[in-house]
Amino acid sequence: MTIFYEDEILKQIKKGEIPKSIFELFHHAFIALETTNDMNLFDIKRLKSSQERSYYRIRKNKYRAIFYIENKNYYVINIAKREEVYKQWE
């Protein structure tokens, strides 16, 4: 089991667009999810999804992370403030 972050997320952290403290909150949450496989530990909701993949969001303060699970790996595709993170889902 592994946690993968999109390259764009890592670039945003380096540029300071995503605060490191927020990224660390999410990273610790994903480590806990990976360890326990308990989706009830955090405020996680399933989003509208395509037929081949289910997407989820996890909430930390004003930020949201969008991710999916495949072969017991977590793929984080976006971390942003609430008003920005859902734009690709509209």
Task: Explain how this protein is built.
The protein has 90 residues and is of the alpha+beta class. It has one domain: YaeB-like fold (2-Layer Sandwich), CATH 3.30.2310. The protein contains 3 helices and 5 strands. Strands 1-5-4-3-2 form a 5-stranded mixed sheet. A hairpin with an 8-residue loop joins strand 2 and strand 3. It starts with a strand and ends in a 5-residue tail after the last helix. The model has no long low-confidence stretch (mean pLDDT 89).
Essential attributes:
YaeB-like fold; alpha+beta; 90 residues
Secondary structure topology:
Blueprint: E1 3-5, H1 7-15, H2 20-36, E2 44-46, E3 55-60, E4 63-70, E5 73-81, H3 82-85
Parallel strand pairs: 1-5
Antiparallel strand pairs: 2-3, 3-4, 4-5
Q: Can you give me a brief rundown of this structure?
A:
This protein has 90 residues and is α+β, with helices and mostly antiparallel strands.
What is the rounded Rg? Answer: 12 Å
Strand content: 25-35%
List low-confidence stretches.
none
> How many structural domains?
1
CATH architectural name: 2-Layer Sandwich
Helical residue percent band? 25-40%
**Which CATH class applies here?**
Alpha Beta
Full CATH superfamily name: RelE-like
Count of helical regions: 3
- Spell the H/E element sequence: EHHEEEEH
Indicate the structural class: alpha+beta
Shape: globular
* Mean of residue pLDDT values: 89
Biggest β-sheet: strands ordered side by side in the sheet? 1-5-4-3-2
Main beta sheet: strand number and arrangement?
5 strands, mixed
Number of strands: 5
N→C terminal distance: 31 Å
Write the CATH fold name: YaeB-like fold
